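Chapter review: from sequence to fold.
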Amino acid sequence: MDQGEVIADLAQLLGESLTLDEARVSASVSKETAAKVHDAHVAPTKDGPIANMETKDASRDADCDGLYADNAAAAVVPPSPGSDEVSDSEDSYAGSSSGSDSDDDLAWSGPPPPLQVYSPLLPAGATSLFAASDSLLEAIADMVVTGKAKNVIVMAGAGISTDAGIPDFRSPGTGLYDNLQKFNLPHPEAIFSIDYFRRNPKPFYVLAKELYPGQYVPTQSHFFVKLLEQKGLLLRHYTQNIDCLERAAGIDPELIVEAHGSFHTAHCIGRKCRQEYSQAWVKEHIFRDEIPRCSSCDSLVKPDITFFGEGLPSRFFELLVEDFAKCDLLIVMGTSLLVQPFASIIDHVGPHVPRLLINRMRVGESKAPGAGFDFDGRFGKSLHRDAFVAGDSDEACALFAGHLGWLDELVELRASHIAKQGLDLAK
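The token string follows.
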């Protein structure tokens, strides 16, 4: 599908907004999306969106949505010898996921840059994995349509849940932030420290009540992943998020790897007990403003979210090697790629596997050949196989779906979910 057809489809869908309880975001593509798609293939200039994203923007330095597992997961591993430190320009958007000076995954609370498919100028001698087309996104869509990509892995972070309306517990002035101030936390991330939780679990459960799954609608990005599943193309979805929105979108749990855990199950933290509890059992206690305690040993019961000081779920490591060996298209959406070991698994796919980053800024790059993304063919004659789409993940997924000929299905999938949830709420 060419650019004109995508624009026509987007325009046809304008005004078909569906909401759940007059809240959350629309199921259709917004007018802003259609306007931005017009400029999606403009080559970047020094004054364009790509250049602007590489400069420091103080307005985006504020701490932001701490629900996601880039805040709640295993501590950031310091760069290994020979690896690259994050540049100052990159750090203006993202930072360590631990410590009091954390900047969070990406500053998702600010406006995204205009949607833009990055068009690299490859050096002489560089070969590209992508066929000649109007854009790299179109070329990747062609790989899917022609059956060259059949085993897709999606890696996702906080950015795909931005439009779900989940509150930010680290931004002053929000009710949730103000509610947590009475606990005098040493720093916001203490709420996800296992040591602090053992001493004082109350702040976490106050946060959990606000953020508990079932209160938010999956975004268009989640439903794009669901659409990949329906097409028989989704090999696995690896997510850093703990919000369970993938499950809410109907993605088969067997296809989901919640790298930093989730609310779906809970366990007693007693070292000799470890009794399992359901999400419903924990929710019942939390919504009665009670601290959940084990019926067997009276220890605290904690949702299976990976806190600082805890190891990642075994499922992450059990599936990683086999999945990435099979992968023939890797899509990375809405993550800073700063938290290890999640960040480095982009290098586990084969050397001829195309990799697509959909994000507000370029991340995951390295000066070392063969490590991280290489969007510009910086290593001369090495194979160019990385593509970058700058902007909001929902808008990018709509554009990608348009190139695939799936846009109507994507919009209908989310709309039908919202309608169904509306019926459930009315009962």
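Two observations follow directly from the output. The beta strands are 116-117, 152-156, 234-239, 256-258, 261-268, 276-278, 301-305, 329-333, 355-359, 386-390. Residues 3-166+220-258+313-426 form a domain with the Rossmann fold fold (CATH 3.40.50.1220).
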